[in-house]
Structures are given as structure tokens and as C-alpha cells.
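It is worth pausing here to work through a concrete case rather than discussing structure prediction in the abstract. The textbook approach is simple: state the sequence, then state the predicted structure, then interpret. We follow exactly that order.
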Amino acid sequence: MQLDDLDRKAAERFEGYLVRKDLVRQFSRQFPVPTYVVEFLLGRYCATIDEEEINEGLDIVQRQLASRTVKAGEQELFKARTREEGTVKLIDLISARLDAKTDAYLAHLPSLQLKDVRITPERVREHERLLTGGFYAEVTLSYDAAIAQELHGRPFGIDALRAIQLSKRDVLEVLAEKTPRGGLVVIGELNLGGSIEPINNAVTLVEMAIEKGAQVVLMPVSSRRQLFDLSDDMATKVDIQFYQDARDALLKALVE
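Step two, the predicted structure:
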């Protein structure tokens, strides 16, 4: 893949954050996970423009997706492997619920058709999204043969859990930190699929940016109409620019 000037400039400024889209296509429809799961793994192992490092990272991603995703008809194989080996690692859409009859939280792993997997209250508190639909995660699943012998025993348990998501540091925050433009504030947030989340308090955010010394504010174009309520005094103190997507934000932030 040939990199254009923007690609090279972005790779230099944001080393370790950008992934080539053509790499994602290499895994298209090979594994039963959404595209953003593949992008997450590529971001971990292939966020570079060095071809040798990319190829090494692609091998790791291929091995992890092949060994940790459950294809149709492999449910019992993964369960048996967990029993024989004690633990297995898999990538799945995990959620949880409270079983009031036993006063215990139970996890659901749909790819294994398991609905009664033990999970600690501490882990549920740490990942509250488990209770609101769940999320894709790298899961370490264990099997306890002693519990299996108990009446109504639940031998499968969650030993470890790592959410597959964007970094806790907002991508757009990193963009503002690493841009060559002084006095720039980037407003916005990316969701798991890479789309821009809507902003509901644009005026307040712009006023806060001005108070912090912002000279230029980049924000999603979808928030433009909200700024009709921005006072004339505030509007004259800052240059407000809009972006359509993350690439557009990147391009405008890199303009010196």
C-alpha cells in the first residue's frame, strides 16, 4: 500500500495509534467477530509503518483470532478444552446478570452457549457495561471439576477479562496533544466502531475551551446548529472549525 503525504505525516505524529485499513481487509469475514475487534488487535500489534514489524504483528493477530474465536460447531470443542486444560482464552461478546435466587452474578458467553458462568461481583463492578448489554472482550475461562460434582454446580468461571475497546485516553485528546498547532482543542469522542459520538452541550464545551486558552476549536459538524446560542463575545475569541469524521479532524489538526 502506498502512503500519501497525510498518511506519512500522521504516522510520524501519532506513532502507535494508526492502523492501515488494508490490513483490516485481510481478515474480512474470516472470523466471527466485528471489524472493530480486528482493528483493536491490529492496533495492538501493527500500529506502525515498518513492514517487517507489520508482518510480525499480522502473524500474531492471525494466531490469536484463529485460536480464540469460536466458529460454528466448535462450542463443545472449546468447552472440552477448558475442562482438559483448566483454562482457555477466547474472544466473545460477554454480558452478565444477577441471579437473585442464588444472590450471584452469572456471565453469558453466546459463542459457547453458556449462560451460567461464574463471575465475581468485583469484576462486574469494574465493568458495569456487563449489565447493560455487554461488550466484546478477551476472556480467560476456567473449569472447576469439583464444582461440577455439586448439585446445580456451575463449573465454568471467568478468571480474567479485558475489554476490547478504544483506549481510555480519547483518540481525539491524543490528536490535540500531538498536533503541531498551538492553542488547539479538539472536541468529540469516538465510539467502538470508530464513529463520532454526538455532542449535546456544544456551547458549554466551547466556553470551557476558551477559558483554558484555546485559540482554535475543532468539533463535529453535527454540533454546528447548537452554536447559535454561543454569545457574540465568546464567538469572537476563538476560531471554530468543524470536522466530518476522524480523518477530517486529523487532516485539519495537522495543518500548521
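Step three, interpretation. DSSP finds eleven helices and eight strands in the chain. Strands lie at 87-99, 104-109, 114-118, 135-143, 156-163, 184-186, 216-220, 239-243.
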